[in-house]
Design goal:
By secondary structure, the chain is mostly beta strands. The chain has 2 domains: 117 residues, no CATH class; 100 residues, no CATH class. Strands 13-12-11-10-9-14 form a 6-stranded mixed beta sheet. A hairpin with a 4-residue loop joins strand 10 and strand 11. The radius of gyration is 18 Å and the shape is globular. The model has no long low-confidence stretch (mean pLDDT 92).
Length: 233
């Protein structure tokens, strides 16, 4: 089952995004209901396909967790079924502002929904579930986390969110449990022009992976919400 983080933000969702307070129960996709989301044009989905989706609240949906790290705690993990063919976004104010530029709209049936961080906490130990990606060069391979151009971090509900970019157009995110001298990885995102990969699994980082991530944690800039709180449970 493939994992994606599509954009759900749309004026057609019937949500008043200008309201001073938004209630999560009113904006999180409901199990058994039909909704839609916008996927990158290279994400060719098949009708009937079951997907694992990361749903983010509005600010981080538009700008990423790095702009509103507290919203990681309100993000959800959805299982959804593609129930129709791709459509181009309608001509609307949001399209004129390029919010959905280069994306395709797919209708979805929501099969399950759970909070993102508790789902990560419940993962079983699996040291082979994922690995940090390497970059191949004429001089050998090295970890992408060794080529950092920028790095930031925030602690959310006891877990550490670590994000970084490189000079080679690579963007990465990790969600970690850092306890004393142990670093446990729970989630890894790696994005570059060649595609995106989302990996889940509880694993203690060792060797070169631990060294690279520990260095990133040491140099990371503290991240803070860029907008005032507007979500209510």
């Amino acid at each position: 089952m493939k994992t994606y983080c599509p954009m759900f933000w749309s004026l057609d969702q019937g949500i008043d995004y200008s309201a001073p307070i938004l209630h999560l129960k009113d904006i999180v996709p409901s199990v058994g209901k039909r909704t839609f989301a916008f996927f990158d044009s290279h994400d060719r989905l098949d009708v009937g396909e079951i997907l694992l989706l990361i749903w983010c609240p509005p600010v981080s949906d538009l700008n990423g967790w790095s702009e509103q790290p507290s919203e990681i705690a309100q993000s959800h993990l959805l299982k959804a079924k593609v129930v129709g063919a791709a459509q181009a976004p309608e001509q609307s104010a949001e399209r004129l502002h390029n919010v959905h530029h280069g994306k395709l709209k797919y209708p979805l049936d929501i099969l399950s929904c759970e909070r993102f961080l508790p789902a990560l906490q419940a993962l079983q130990e699996d040291s082979t579930s994922w690995y940090l990606q390497e970059i191949g060069t004429a001089n050998g391979n090295f970890l992408a986390w060794d080529e950092l151009h920028w790095c930031g971090s925030a602690v959310v509900e006891g877990l550490t969110y670590l994000t970084a970019s490189t000079s080679s157009e690579t963007y990465m995110e990790l969600i970690l449990k850092v306890a004393d001298d142990e670093i446990i990885g729970l989630f890894s995102l790696h994005m570059n022009p060649g595609g995106d990969s989302y990996d889940f699994g509880r694993k203690s980082l060792t060797g070169e992976e631990r060294r690279a991530v520990k260095h990133a944690l040491n140099i990371a800039q503290p991240l803070h919400d860029t907008q005032a709180a507007y979500l209510a449970e």
